[in-house]
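Researcher: We're reviewing a set of sequences before deciding which ones to prioritize for further study. For each one, I'd like a predicted 3D structure that I can look through quickly. This is Heterokaryon incompatibility domain-containing protein. If possible, include the structure in C-alpha cell form so it fits the rest of the review sheet.
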Amino acid sequence: MSYSKVISGVAGSIAGIMLFQLLSFYLMKPKKKDGINHSPPGHMPSRSSNEDVAVDVDEDTVTSFQQSSTDYDGATHNFPLDVTTSNAGASIIPGENAPLCSTCTELDFHLILRNGIPRESAISLGPLTGIIQRAGQCGFCRLASIVIRRTWLLDEHPHVDLSEIQCSLYSMDCGCLQDPAPAPKELCHRFYIQPSDRPREIYDAMLAANTGLMLDIQLLEEDACNNERTEELHGRRVGDTIDIGLVKKWLDLCEREHGDVCESVWWRGSDKNLPKGVRMLDVTCMSIVHAPPGCRYVALSYLWGGMGAEYWTTQANLKQRGVSGGLDMSSLPGTITDSIQLVRQLGERYLWVDALCIIQDNLKDKAVQIGVMELIYGSSLFTIFAAGGRTANSPLPGLRPGTRRQQQHIDVIQGLHLTVPLPMLRETLTRTAWDTRGWTFQEVMLSRRRLFFTDQQIYFECGQDVWCEDVVAERKRQPRSYQPLRYNGVGGLTFLRTPPSWAKNEYLSSYASAVGLYTQRQLTMESDIVNAITALTNAWTKGFKLNGGDPRKAFRFGMSITDLHTVLLWQPEANVKHYRRSNGGMGSAPWPSWSWAGWRGAVHYAGSGQYLEIHKNTESPRLLESLVDPWFIVDEGGEVVQLEVGRMNRATAYPEEIGPRQYLPPQGIFDPLQLGLTNEHPPEPGTLIFRTSSAWFDIAQVNSVSSNIETHYAFFSILSNIPSPSTRVGRIILPLSIRSPASLKFIVLSRTNGPSGVYDENVLGERYSGCFLYVMAVEKKGDTTIMERVGVGIIFEGAWLQSTAEETVVLLG
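Model: Here's the predicted structure for Heterokaryon incompatibility domain-containing protein, in C-alpha cell form for your review sheet.
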C-alpha cells in the first residue's frame, strides 16, 4: 500500500479530534501490570511506584511498558493532510491531554522517558501504516507521523511502499553539556522511533536533502523538572517573533567562553583593521561612512533576487549618503531594513551591506572591495544570513510579527508536552533559495559567527557550537560535552586555528570540497564565476602561505597554481550537462577549458577508483609524480610568464611507493618564447603552455558498467592495437555526445596508482606502484594550434610506452 492511500482515510478524522481536544480531558484508566504502576494521564507516577525499576532496563521491565499492540492492514501513503504547519503565529499546541490509541494507552511515557529503553529492547508500535492511519485519533501517533513524514520526505514520494515496515519505540539520552558527565539516566532523554527498514528511494532522497536519520520526539523544558531533569537539551517553544535576549545570550556566551577559536581570523594576519576604502552603514546616524579603526560591525548575506538598482549606492548618491540622515530608510528593501532594526536592538552600530557599501557603478571600487571580501566577512562580529528570503524585499522571518512560517507542533501526552524537533540547520538550508546562489557560498564559509534566519526558526553557529530556538543547548562547552546540533551546522573554512606545519597541504582537500559545493550553485552573472569565490581563494592563499601569500600568483581562473597538476583532474558531476561558459558579454577573455570555471555545471574531484564506478566524492586525487615541468601561461597582457607550480616527484611525495619507473617526461631546457607565439594566431590570455608527450588512441563506450550519470556521461575504454587489436589500456569519462568508436588525442599529465579492471592485465601485465598515467583527451580549437580539454582519464604506463607517442608542446586554452 502507498502512503497516499493510507492518508485518504485520515483527513476526515482530524477536524473532529482537534475540536475534541479543546472540549474534553481524555482519561486513561490506571493499570497495574507486573508490579509497575501506570499512573493516570496528567500525573507523574509516584516515586514509590518507580523504586523497583532498575537503571539497566531488562526485558521484563520493557514488557511492563506495554500490554499489546494493534495490527492494521494496508500499507500505502499520500498526505494532503497538514497537521504541522500554519502560515504564521505561535506554535500549534492542542490544549489538553491528547487521546491515545490502544497501543499507546498501554505505555507509561513518564517512565520510559525517565529510565530509558535501550534500542535493542525497543517496544513495538506496530506497522508504520497503522501509525499513519492513527494520526487523527492518537496524539503520540500524530507526533510519530509528523517526524516520519518530514524526515522521510513522504509528501515528495507518495507512492513508496511502506507495507512491510514495522516501527518500535526506545528512549535514550541525546547529549550532555556537563563535565564530568552524570550517569546516562540523569541526562535529557528523547523518544526515538525505530523503523525495521527504510526504502532505498527514501534513503537516497534523505541524503540529497541532508535530513537527519534519527526519528526523535523531545520533551519541552517546562516539563523537565517534573521528569527529574534539568532544562538542558530539552525542547523550547518557538514564538511568533524571536527573543532578542536569546540572541544576545548566544553572542555573549561565544565571546566570553570560546576564546581565540571564534575570535581570531588566522588568515588575516596581525592587522585587525579593515583596509582603507571599506565602508559601513552607521545604523545610528543612517549614513554610509568609512570603517573606523578596530570597527565592530555586523555583515549581511542575502539574495538580491533581481531587485532594481534604486537602493544601491552609486557615484551619484554617495555624497548624500555620507552625511548623517542621508540614507532614507524608506528607500531600502525589507531584508536590509529588518537587518538595520536587528543591529540596533542588539546594541551594535555598524552594518556592512554590499549594495550600500560598494559603489555599484564604479568598477575600480568593486574590484577593491571584492579583493578584500575575505576580511570583510571574516572580521565581522557575526553575519546575518537571510536564508529564509528569495529577494532583498523578503523580511527576516521572526523579526516582526506575522513574518514567520511556524512549524512547531506540540502535543500533550499523559501530561507531558512533547514536540518534534525542528529540522537541523543543514537540512533547513538545503531547501532554501539562498543555498543555491554562488555569492553566498564564500560568505558563509568565511564568517566566524553566523546567525541564520529561516522560515522556521533562527540558528546561531560559531567555531565551537550550534544553537537554535527550539532546543536549550546554551552552556559553556566542556571538553567532552556533546549535543545533537553541534555537528549539523554548515562548518567553516578548513581550520579554526592556524594550521599546524604538518597540515600545510591540507588545504587541497578543503579546496576540492569547496569547488564541488560551489559549482553546484547558480550565478545571475556568468562573469562572476571567479569573483564569487575569490575571497575563499584569498583566504587559502594567505592562511597557507601559497606562493608567498600572493593571491595573484597562487590562483588563476579559480584554479590553485601551487597544485596545478592535481586540480587539473576535476570531473563533471552526476546528471549535469556541461557547456562552455560564455564571458557574459563583458568583453573579457573567455575562461579556459582547463579550468572548471570555463564550464557551466557542477564538478567534483575523486581518486582513480572513480574509473571503475562513477561516483560523487570530494577527495583530491592522489598523485605520485607530476610529469610536466615547467608550466607557463599567457597573462592578461599577452605576455608568457612561468607559473610557480609546486614540484612533485615520487621520491619526495610517496617514497615508500617507488616502483619500476619507465616513462620519463621530456628533458632539457624549454623556452616557450622561442615558439613564435605572437605571430598570426596569438594565444588568448589564460592559455597554458607546457611540454609533454602525446599519442592517439581509440575509444569505445563501456556498456557493461552501471553509472548514475549515464544521462550525460559514460565510461569509455581507451583502446590500442598494440600488442593486439582493441586491447584495453585505460579508461576515461566522456560526454555521451562523443561518438563511439572514435579516436582522440591524449597528453600525459601525472602518475598515479589505479584499480584493477580498467585495462587488459592478462595482455599487458600486472599492476605495480605508479603504473598509471593521468592523461587528458584534447581537441583542436577551430583552425588554431590551441587545444581544449575533452576529458581526463588514466592509461596503463606500459601501453603508453608501446604507442606512437611523441614529445609535443601543448597550448591548452
